[in-house]
């Protein structure tokens, strides 16, 4: 196929190039922050080269191209004749949640309006009715009502309006019929309460409907920011088991998605750790492949890793005893206290962490920063990058309150706990304990586990701690550990 030779020409060795400002960017990007045309090409690249089966198109706060379907079909028609959008591969928009994102609320309407338009482009291209977009992701879902509203908004007002009369003619007679007739809504659960009650919310939504299947998205990064690494993993695993039980109860296939990133704090989903991540979440259907995974690793390793994910079969998830939540309560309390002390330093370092995506700026509680226990903090990538840059990997926060027995008990549910802590300890800088006394226990833990700090990374983080550094130092440290955040 033609795109095989294209791969050899475009990326002989690496998928990233170094920008003049020392930020590593994908080979096809024009600047360090991806947006617009870059993301259209990125979608084609993910489909045609990496073997990705689905691209999330994030309308929630990003400068994305709303004509992505038209541009993909026009520019890369030869590929999409063979791999049909909406059947073999898919684009799935992530839309704003009007219940939370008031400034972006009307963008939900615009995104839903674009779905029939995309189907028109596909019909002209394929000569048959194909809906290249037929699902949307609803972030920050907290109730079945929010899912229902989006489902009904599309069905009754986007599709239903075609039967309204304009002057002397019905809309569908004038501008054509609208397709598809309905869409699937994928709830994204991000808060502790929503994650732990996700099966109940889904049950309420699915009751009385006759869907072929349902998908559900569990966040991993934001829960880690809010409640700490260990809580995020165990809450998601608790939810996954209950969703599995619901699937059997309703006899409706439910396919979970989990939003994993590269750092252990965000899921430790990197090519060399793919098999461990799959074992951690055996009944997950879809794993998110984020920028660092795609562009900060050897392309052959990336392709092989994606193949492993695509070829595996889902397995059963184990149950989580709610008794372990008592340990998590004290862990979260300590995590919150430590984070409060670190927050001013995180905000300061975050100013120097480069962005990979162009984001819109607007006002709101969740407006592209996060408010955690009263502290305004950057989003997950910059949050994680800032703490690693300070020599305090976020995986280590909250540990000081846990006994060895506590950690052993938690590891019964979080299988990769010791492995992830060992990784984080390699990038812990003991010098930070001089400023933050709660880190003395981490210094001790590092010694007890016989973990040697990565020397070059420690040198760079010491420079950052001193306050005398440039953005390039943050990027150099990220290059050593294999990810920005």
UniProtKB/TrEMBL annotation:
The keyword Magnesium applies. GO terms for biological process: carbon fixation; oxaloacetate metabolic process; tricarboxylic acid cycle. Keywords: Carbon dioxide fixation, Lyase, Magnesium, Pyruvate. Its EC number is 4.1.1.31. It comes from the Archaea. GO terms for molecular function: magnesium ion binding; phosphoenolpyruvate carboxylase activity. InterPro entries: PEP_COase_arc-type, Pyrv/PenolPyrv_kinase-like_dom. Its cofactor is Mg(2+). It catalyses: oxaloacetate + phosphate = phosphoenolpyruvate + hydrogencarbonate. NCBIfam families: PEPCase_arch. Homotetramer. Belongs to the PEPCase type 2 family. Catalyzes the irreversible beta-carboxylation of phosphoenolpyruvate (PEP) to form oxaloacetate (OAA), a four-carbon dicarboxylic acid source for the tricarboxylic acid cycle. This is Phosphoenolpyruvate carboxylase. It comes from Thermococcus sibiricus (strain DSM 12597 / MM 739). The lineage of its organism: Archaea, Methanobacteriati, Methanobacteriota, Thermococci, Thermococcales. The gene is ppcA.
């Amino acid at each position: 196929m033609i795109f095989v030779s294209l791969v050899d020409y475009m990326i002989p060795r690496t998928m990233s190039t170094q920008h003049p400002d020392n930020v590593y960017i994908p080979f096809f990007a024009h600047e360090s922050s991806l947006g617009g045309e870059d993301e259209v090409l990125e979608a084609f690249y993910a489909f045609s080269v990496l073997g990705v089966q689905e691209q999330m198109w994030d309308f929630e706060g990003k400068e994305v191209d709303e004509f992505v379907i038209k541009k993909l079909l026009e520019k890369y028609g030869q590929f999409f004749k063979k791999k049909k959008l909406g059947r073999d591969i898919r684009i799935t928009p992530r839309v704003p949640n009007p219940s939370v994102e008031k400034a972006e609320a009307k963008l939900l309407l615009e995104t839903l309006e674009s779905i029939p338009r995309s189907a028109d482009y596909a019909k002209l291209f394929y000569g048959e009715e194909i809906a290249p977009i037929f699902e949307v992701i609803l972030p920050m879902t907290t109730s079945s009502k929010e899912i229902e509203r989006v489902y009904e908004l599309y069905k009754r007002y986007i599709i239903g309006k075609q039967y309204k009369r304009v002057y002397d003619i019905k809309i569908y007679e004038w501008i054509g019929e609208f397709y598809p007739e309905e869409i699937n809504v994928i709830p994204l659960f991000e808060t502790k309460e929503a994650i732990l009650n996700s099966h109940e919310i889904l049950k309420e939504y699915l009751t009385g409907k006759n869907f072929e299947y349902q998908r559900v998205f569990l966040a991993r990064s934001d829960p880690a920011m809010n409640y700490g690494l260990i809580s995020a993993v165990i809450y998601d695993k608790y939810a996954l088991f209950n969703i599995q039980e619901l699937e059997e109860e309703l006899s409706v296939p439910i396919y979970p998605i989990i939003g994993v990133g590269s750092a252990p704090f965000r899921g430790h989903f990197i090519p060399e750790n793919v098999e461990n991540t799959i074992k951690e979440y055996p009944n997950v259907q879809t794993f998110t492949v984020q920028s660092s995974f795609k562009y900060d690793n050897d392309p052959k390793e990336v392709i092989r890793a994606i193949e492993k994910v695509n070829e595996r079969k889902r397995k059963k998830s184990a149950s989580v005893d709610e008794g372990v939540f008592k340990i998590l309560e004290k862990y979260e309390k300590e995590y919150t206290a430590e984070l409060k002390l670190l927050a001013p330093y995180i905000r300061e370092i975050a100013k120097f962490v480069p962005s990979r995506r162009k984001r819109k700026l607007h006002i709101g509680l969740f407006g592209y920063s996060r408010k955690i226990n009263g502290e305004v903090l950057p989003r997950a990538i910059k949050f994680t990058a800032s703490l690693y840059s300070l020599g305090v990997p976020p995986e280590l926060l909250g540990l000081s309150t846990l006994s060895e027995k506590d950690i052993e008990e938690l590891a019964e549910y979080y299988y990769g706990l010791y492995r992830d802590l060992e990784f984080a300890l390699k990038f812990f800088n003991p010098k930070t304990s001089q400023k933050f006394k709660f880190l003395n226990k981490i210094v001790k833990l590092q010694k007890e586990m016989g973990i040697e700090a990565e020397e070059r990374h420690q040198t760079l983080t010491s420079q950052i701690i001193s306050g005398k550094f440039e953005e390039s130092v943050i990027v150099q440290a990220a290059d050593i550990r294999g990810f920005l955040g």
